[in-house]
Amino acid sequence: MSDASSSPTRAQTFAAMSAVLTGFQAGIISPTLDPIDLNGLYLQTADAQAGTALVDQLLQQFTSLQGQPKQVIADTLLATDNPNPPPPPNTAWLARSIAKLWYVGSWYPAAPPPAGGPPGIGTVASANAYIGGLMWKAAQAHPMGYSAFTFGYWNTAPPSLEQFGVDIPSGGGSNG
Questions:
Q1: Where are the beta strands (DSSP E) in 113-176?
Q2: Are 174 and 70 in contact (CB under 8 A)?
Q3: Calpha distance 62→57 (Å, rounded)
Q4: What is the pTM of this model?
Q5: What would the pLDDT profile of 63-101 be if each residue is shown by its tens digit?
Q6: CA–CA separation, 100 vs 8, rounded Å?
Q7: For the chain, which residues make up each domain, given as ranges?
Q8: Quick count: other Cβ atoms within 10 Å of Cβ 128?
Q9: Torsions phi, psi of 83, nearest 5?
């Protein structure tokens, strides 16, 4: 019998899924002390833009894949695991939108672009989302006009990707 108090909350499940989708450590996605709460903002954004029912469907799919290697989970959720795939399901488009949201701080439509047309235009979730975008950590950089680094930091090599919170698999290969 499962104790409801020990089961993860919806926000915790969203954070765990986001860590797998982005390849970043869970502590970067949802730090213990987080005055900005990007995880909460992004969950609210996904609910508002794609609908709570579709978000819950994706979270349930993520939960059902627990125990698999992280890369297998990400490939399955993003529908990138088949070289000749059928059109991706709505949950895959949602997973892709969530990954983009974490990286660039903007919401892109959770749907395929119109036939022959450009992808949809992104909507910035918040100024904190732009500043907190994972793209800056992946590039070992910071957004223009904002830096948590001290003066003269450019005089030395940037910290490793691991120090920026990228979930680097030990021994290379899959992220499992």
A1: 123-124
A2: yes
A3: 9
A4: 0.80
A5: 999 999 999 999 999 999 776 667 888 999 999 999 999
A6: 24
A7: 8-155
A8: 14
A9: -65, -25
